[in-house]
Structure formats: C-alpha cells, structure tokens
Please model this.
Amino acid sequence: MSKLLSDVVTNLSFIGVCLLVIVAFGVAARLVEWKLPQLRKVSVARRVSIIGICSALAAVLHVLDFPLPFLAPTFYKLDFSEVPVLLAGFFLGPSATVACEGVKILLKLLLKGTSTAFVGDFANFVVGCCLVLPATVIYHIRKSKCSAIVGLVVGTITMAVFGSAFNAVYLLPKFSELFHMPLDSIIAMGSDIHAGINGVSSFVFLCVAPLNVVKGAVVSFLTMLLYKHVAAPLFQIKK
Model:
C-alpha cells in the first residue's frame, strides 16, 4: 500500500511540474508578444486552423522519430516536428509555437502512446520550445532572412545548453524514477557509445547536447528551405 501511495505521489508531482512548465512557457510567450512589433492580424478561426494544421503535421513527424545509436542511447530519438511549428511561429508569433508544441504532444500520445513514462514527451515539449521560442521572437523583432537565421542559431544553442542542463538536473533522474531504471544503467548505456562517459554531466555533454545540435541544425536548414515555398501557399502570404 505504501509503495502504491508513493507511486501516486511521484506521478502527481511529475504531472504538476509538467503543467507548471507548460503554463510558464505559454505565459512567457504571450508576454513577449506584447513587446514585439505589430504581428500579423488574423481572425481567431484562421489562427486556430493554422495551429491545428501545423500541429497535425508536427505530430506526424514526431511519430516518425528515429534513434541515432552512434550519438545517444536509443530512447533518445531524433525528429523534425519543429519544422511546421516554426512555420506557424514565423507567421503567427511566439505563442503559436507553444500551442503547436502542446497540441503536437497530445496528438502524438493519441497516435503512438508513450514508451518513456511520459518523460520523453515532456522533454520533447520543453526542448522544442527552447528552439522555437527564441527563433520566432528574434525573427519578429525585425523580419528578415538574416534575423530568421540568427534566431534559429540562437534557438539551437539554447536548446543544446538548456536541454542538456534540464536533462541532467531533472529529466534523467525523473526518467530513472518513473521508468524504474537505475541511473547507473542509463549512464552505462551512454558509456557503451562514448568511452569518456562516467556520470550524468559527461552523459549529457557527449550524448544529449550533440543530438540537440544535430536536430537544431537540420530543423533550421529545413525551415529556411521550406518557409517561402510551403508557408506562402499554406498561409496565403501575399508578401
């Protein structure tokens, strides 16, 4: 009985942290939007439809995730779901990216469920926001191809640094706790890939950070390649 109660408390505390972080990202994005130059004015119906379309595309891309076993243990997977999220953010603003990230995760859970005790899904949301929020904020300060590139570079760096720190401080210990896998076993999986891994810090430095950099670089390239060709007809951009 005490074990069951302990599991319930652990899961509820995790859910509470998830909700707080999601709300924090949403509020931060909304506050930043008020300070940005005038964003495109679109109707509520159009805004909802764009977020819905981009979230659905993102969810499909998220379902098609795949591991890079030469970089990180196979429970870390690479996906390109932030591409449609960035397209929506470049068009609508930062708060749309948080909405897309949240809906994407919900749709992915409906389509595929979870294999990481929901920790991986929470991580994908947080790490994704770390990429798309800086990128869209910087782009909307002064809309240009140069600012888009700068924003994507800053977003990639933020994702690599914050994503690694968040993994070390919270996500890895929580995954170990909820998935009932000793943290030493996770570190050992990293050691099998990189001989220099001997603890959490070296694990995130040699596994998590490079994976996030690869993701940020590829997502940034695809976003720059596709925005004018895909977003223009999708969002009916006339200029």
